[in-house]
Amino acid sequence: MRYSREHKAETHARIVRKASVLLRERGVHGVGVAELMKEAGLTHGGFYAHFASRDALLIEAVAHAMDRSIAHWRKITQAHPGQAGLADIVDAYLTPTHRDDPGYGCAIAALGAEIAREGAGARRMFAAKLEEMVAVLAAEADGATAEAARNEAIATLALMTGALVLARAAGGGAFSNEILSIVRARALADTTAAPKTAAGKPVAKKRLASTPAAKKPRRKAKS
Amino acid sequence: MRYSREHKAETHARIVRKASVLLRERGVHGVGVAELMKEAGLTHGGFYAHFASRDALLIEAVAHAMDRSIAHWRKITQAHPGQAGLADIVDAYLTPTHRDDPGYGCAIAALGAEIAREGAGARRMFAAKLEEMVAVLAAEADGATAEAARNEAIATLALMTGALVLARAAGGGAFSNEILSIVRARALADTTAAPKTAAGKPVAKKRLASTPAAKKPRRKAKS
DNA sequence: TGTACATCAGTGAACGCGCGTTCACTGATGTAC
DNA sequence: TGTACATCAGTGAACGCGCGTTCACTGATGTAC
Fold first, then answer.
1. Which residue, among A128, A69, A127, has the nearest Cα to A102 in the 3D structure?
2. What is the DSSP letter of B131?
3. Nearest neighbour of A186 by CB, restricted to B108, B126, B155
4. Domains of chain B, with CATH numbers?
5. Which pLDDT does position B221 carry in this prediction?
């Protein structure tokens, strides 16, 4: 072999990483194979040594983006379990920094509507990752039962992703900032004070106004 | 002139109407000029007698879709002013019927993320229509002040659109239905029972579980 | 340890295709007389 | 009222371009001896 087995795996991973950024920035059909390969330091002809088709890369790249979000959220909830972790997630999600850097942000807000129009493979992958994300949020959500926590998680995810899509569509000006701050305040209020049912855990109230992952623009998942 | 002035206006409007459906179904770049014209009963060459570019049509077509939503919402709130009207809007929005028929549904959920990546003209139009939609909802929203009502409207819009995007991305199965029903229940609870501040108007409670616009699949706005 | 060979990640030209746009043309009808 | 002409919405072939994919080839390196 011209290159070692690890070399190929590294190249493959590099293409997937770069693609996950460019696809989130430009949309599902916004980047071509040639540019994707160039970004990874290669020429377009070598693409098919790594992927069966552009669609196969799309699936891997979007899955990668969502895995990064999931890992990021897990890290946050490990540092601050329960409602405080949820609050940290929401707080970092609904920021101008996240809005203005979709390439390193949430794939649901960037690509969700488009993925819903893609082939069965992409849709299945996306649905499975969505379930994972709901599970991560539900594990920290308030609620007397597992069902109540899951409901809380789903509603919070819908509110977060909807607000981010609106904020991006609103253009980045005052209206856009308003959307972010209003929804952030409301989601945090829901999350920390929610007296829906008799809570199993005591309600923690840490770090409501900070934006932990959005401070410095290091190239990491913000979602 | 070969055709009367009204004839041209009718043809123009027909292209815009058909385009607004196909674009919502397939995405901002999912339909070509040739197919769009064929759908309107014409050949592609005549396109530029009506529009300066494909982009110009995109802007008109998405604006049309959002105007239909706005008109539809106004009609509902005229029939049931206040919280009851808001409840009717949310109720019809978060249905499998709306989820499964994006071509006649809400342009925010179908195209919002993509429009955010388009040119300045499309983004400006979209932001302006978003403001209109917020205003329509805010006029019926509960709240001691205009600001509180506007906040309520923005949060409700984010929750609605986010849930619809998630439900479509989740694939249409049990998980997808779960998203719709959970968020619908929660949004309706927020809307009708919300004891946020001393309400100016008495809270009406009509037709909570019905889906007025989604009963028969006549080709009308569902959003 | 040194040599010969097979492997295969990566190259770059070429492919068929569909896209948005242009353009010379058509012919029914509004308008001028 | 009737006739001649100008208009211009709509036609369909053609354009340049970028796309995803294919393919013959390269050459550094892992492997067999």
1. A69
2. H
3. B155
4. 63-215 (1.10.357.10)
5. 53
